[in-house]
Amino acid sequence: MRTFKIAICEDDRDQNEHINYMIKKSCIFLSSEHQKFEISNTFYSYESIFQFINSSSKLPDIYFLDIQLSSKPDDKNGIELANLIRNKQKTAQIIFITTHDELALLTFEYQIEALDYIVKSNEEAKIQTKITQDLEKSAYKLEEFLEKKNNIFTYQIGNNFYRVNIDNIYYISTTPFPHRLKIIAKNEISEFTGDIKNIQDKILGFIKVSQSYLVNMKNITSINLKKRLILFPTGEEIQFAFSAKRKIKEYLMAD
Questions:
Q1: CA atoms of 194 and 216, how far apart (whole Å)
Q2: Which of 67, 97, 170, 218 could be cross-linked to 78 through a Cys-Cys bond (beta carbons 3.0 to 4.6 Å apart)?
């Protein structure tokens, strides 16, 4: 099970407690047997989270930060804090919760790349929805970072994320249902929502042999160029498009 750790930094204790409560509600909604969201740290000042970040070896994955962390204008603020986090942790997902949405422009100057800005003055139901959506987006982005690092392909079914080693995939194909894809791998067959073109851009070493099939060329048993057939270890055969013949020949010649 993958656990996503969440930190909150809000100087107002009542606001902190309320944000904590709302995030916990979203955590319960999104958590499943395959993934878990939990609040691991709560901070009330720049100084407390600063000390934690500089002394801890295990940092949270997702941060909810207030921009204005003090009533004193010269004190460190949430944007400076986010900059510190980003320098320490490139994959951190940063979400601002603030009444000062006009300060969001400063994040571009710092190149923080915040995931979202949640305005406190919005209706509570809207804030709750945004928190849930942002946690879901954060999980997706964190899984993307992980798959690039570990040669892992991640796909989503409902609220659950599944990971498969790219080297074990035979092919990914379309299905009769729009935006529904099928993945065939060693000891694994599954269907998920997605677009084959987007996946093609993410996975190196795969060739789109037709409008319907994206093939891992390392995992084929044989190719019949005359009949335009690809055979897999499972015994299954698929036919590739005439337009893909040159790409396949180039791949074979490169080997």
A1: 18
A2: 67
User: What is the structure's pLDDT at 146?
Assistant: 79
Write the DSSP string, 17-31. HHHHHHHHHHHHHH-
Nearest to 2 by CA among 30, 23, 21: 30
Q: In what order do the strands lie in the sheet with 206-208?
A: 188-193, 180-185, 169-174, 213-216, 206-208
Distance, first Cα to last Cα, the chain: 38
**Side-chain half-sphere exposure of 153, counting CA atoms within 13 A:** 27
- Residue 201's H or E segment, with its range, is helix 196-202
How many residues are recorded in the chain? 255
- pLDDT value for 4: 96
Q: Which amino acid is at 118?
A: I
| Spatial distance between the Cα atoms of 230 and 145, rounded to a whole number of angstroms | 32
Q: Tell if the pTM clears 0.85, that is, is over it.
A: no
Helix residue ranges per DSSP H, 114-194: 124-150
- φ/ψ (deg, to 5) at 155: -130, 160
Mean pLDDT per 10-residue section of the chain, whose length is 255 residues: 93 94 96 90 94 92 90 80 90 88 61 82 91 94 80 84 89 93 92 88 84 92 92 92 89 72
